[in-house]
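F.,

This is the one I mentioned.
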């Protein structure tokens, strides 16, 4: 608690951890490249310098506030200093802005405009480093890297993966992988979180837009969309709407205008996952073996576990993710249609996630001579396609999904947030199907943004211990405490991205934690609005179990379990 003078105005502060947060709280948007409130303070870019009353300059991000301080944020000296930094960065930056993927969204470009940098006085040799597009999820272009280190800290501190780091010294310094290996040859889990903090075009989503247009323009293809739960609460942000606004009806309308033949909901397959995973969980509980059971719908988490904890393979649910269940079921269902009209069935998944691109091409997802899901387009890619097509998104009339695979329960929809899978499974397992039991479940402690959440519930006379974790570093720490016996659980839900899929790296980049909170609210609103709350009450699911799943149940599992 205390107060200070900022540009001559008295400002109170309480728990802010540094000067930068206080300055921003009082309405001055100090520029930074390397500061993210959820990462450690690096203090490298020096853009957030402020001046004290004696004319000394200090980095506001790494200076704790003190009562009675007097600082200035925009003196002539500071302005000159910031411009100089920008010019130095721009001097050896690849400045092909017009064709840069980040054009219009680049922090470097934005600050150069904002601070009035009109020319670069220092001409240095441009970098000509190899652009790594070996990953199916992200492209790394070191020529556009400004060494802020944000991706390095994200990968290490939030995801616990640590495949990116600084190499070489002086003018040759680079952010790269160990031994400069290709991204598809290191333990990158494809989560894409590095790209959510990259201020420039150095890390971007690997696009499948051209491939998507090709099939949409081909009259011999039947193009089928499945839309993931979290897409509906974030797409609007690309068109100036508020985070959390549910725009499913407009997304459906846009997809039809673009030429999609069928538009369905991935949350329907999440309902299948709920039933399969619940049955599997009950078996593990009854036999008291392979506990805790871990969820399997997040592909970045599955890859992380396979690499780091191979001994846990049997504890990870054998269920395919909803994306893959959906693809497998639809391909099976539409096979006869292909035989009748000769059209190839092409399944395009619209996902909030970059790791889903990797999941779709895993070998176990190649069946009957084709992939179950042919292509994955992120929320951001779909927004680009909508804009390219000239569709005025905000003016679209809402349209309904196609039936019967457009029908999902609220339980399927809440998969899009951390805690959602666990809650959906409990809704199914609970014998008490009253609405008060639904409410009680919501308050067990598995909702919310805490990195690790724990709950104890009574299930058929047994006390079940549940953990819900998001962020792979949190998952890593939790697993260590399970392995060393400090903690014990029966069921653990893991999502790699902060907040779950609503914070996926294929979504519009959230401006703050509040955007993720609003998206979460949007998901719970969509759940409240849905007529069906539990997966087993979804009539399409019932029909599937009485139809193709009776004949071919293995469509739902990663191996033939
Ligand atoms: Fe997810 Fe899932 S919820 S993994 O977060 O289980 O991506 O949205 O589609 O597959 O349904 C992502 C979201 C998504 C799957 C479902
Ligand atoms: Fe690290 Fe995820 Fe980026 Fe891969 S995609 S480098 S795991 S943050």
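My design for it:
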């Amino acid at each position: 608690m205390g107060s200070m003078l900022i540009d001559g105005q008295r400002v109170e502060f309480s728990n802010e951890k540094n000067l930068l947060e206080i300055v921003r709280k009082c309405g001055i948007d100090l520029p930074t490249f390397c500061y993210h409130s959820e990462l450690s303070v690096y203090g490298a870019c020096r853009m957030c310098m402020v001046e004290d009353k004696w004319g000394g300059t200090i980095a506001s991000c790494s200076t704790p506030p003190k009562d009675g301080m007097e600082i200035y944020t925009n003196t002539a000296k500071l302005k000159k200093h910031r411009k100089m930094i920008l010019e130095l960065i721009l001097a050896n930056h690849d400045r092909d802005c017009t064709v840069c993927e980040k054009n219009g969204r680049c922090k470097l470009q934005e600050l150069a405009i904002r601070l009035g940098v009109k020319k670069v006085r220092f001409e240095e040799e441009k970098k000509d480093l190899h652009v790594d597009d070996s990953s199916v999820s992200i492209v790394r272009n070191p020529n556009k890297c400004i060494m802020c280190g944000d991706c390095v800290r994200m990968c290490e501190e939030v995801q616990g993966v640590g495949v990116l780091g600084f190499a070489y010294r002086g003018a040759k310094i680079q952010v790269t992988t160990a031994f400069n290996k290709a991204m598809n040859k290191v333990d990158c889990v494809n989560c894409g979180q590095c790209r959510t903090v990259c201020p420039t075009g150095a890390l971007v989503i690997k696009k499948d837009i051209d491939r998507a247009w090709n099939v949409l323009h081909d009259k011999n293809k039947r193009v089928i969309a499945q839309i993931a739960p979290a897409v509906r609460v974030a797409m609007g942000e690309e068109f100036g709407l508020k985070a959390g606004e549910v725009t499913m009806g407009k997304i459906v309308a846009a997809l039809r205008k673009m030429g999609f033949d069928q538009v369905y909901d991935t949350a329907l397959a999440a309902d299948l996952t709920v039933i399969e995973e619940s049955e599997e969980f009950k078996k593990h509980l009854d036999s008291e073996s392979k506990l805790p059971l871990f969820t399997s719908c997040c592909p970045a988490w599955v890859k992380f576990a396979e690499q780091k904890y191979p001994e846990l393979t049997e504890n990870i649910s054998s269920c395919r993710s909803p994306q893959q269940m959906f693809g497998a079921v639809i391909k099976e269902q539409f096979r006869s249609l292909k035989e009748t009209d000769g059209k190839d069935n092409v399944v395009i998944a619209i996902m909030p996630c970059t790791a889903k691109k990797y999941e779709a091409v895993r070998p176990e997802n190649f069946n009957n001579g084709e992939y179950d899901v042919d292509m994955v387009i992120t929320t951001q890619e779909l927004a680009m396609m909508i804009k390219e097509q000239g569709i005025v998104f905000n003016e679209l009339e809402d349209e309904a999904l196609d039936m019967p695979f457009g029908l999902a329960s609220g339980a399927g929809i809440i998969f899009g947030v951390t805690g959602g899978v666990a809650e959906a499974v409990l809704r199914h397992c609970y014998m008490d199907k009253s609405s008060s039991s639904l409410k009680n479940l919501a308050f067990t402690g598995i909702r919310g943004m805490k990195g690790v959440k724990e709950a104890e519930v009574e299930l058929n006379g047994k006390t079940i211990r549940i953990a819900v974790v998001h962020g792979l570093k949190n998952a890593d720490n939790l697993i260590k405490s399970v392995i060393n016996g400090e903690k014990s659980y029966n069921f653990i839900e893991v999502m790699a991205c902060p907040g779950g899929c609503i914070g996926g790296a294929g979504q519009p980049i959230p401006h703050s934690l509040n955007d993720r909170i609003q998206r979460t609210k949007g998901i719970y609103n969509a759940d409240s609005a849905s007529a069906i709350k539990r997966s087993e009450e979804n009539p399409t699911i019932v029909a599937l179990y009485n139809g193709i799943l009776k004949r071919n149940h293995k469509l739902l599992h990663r191996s033939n379990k």
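The chain is about 35% helix and 15% strand.

Talk soon.
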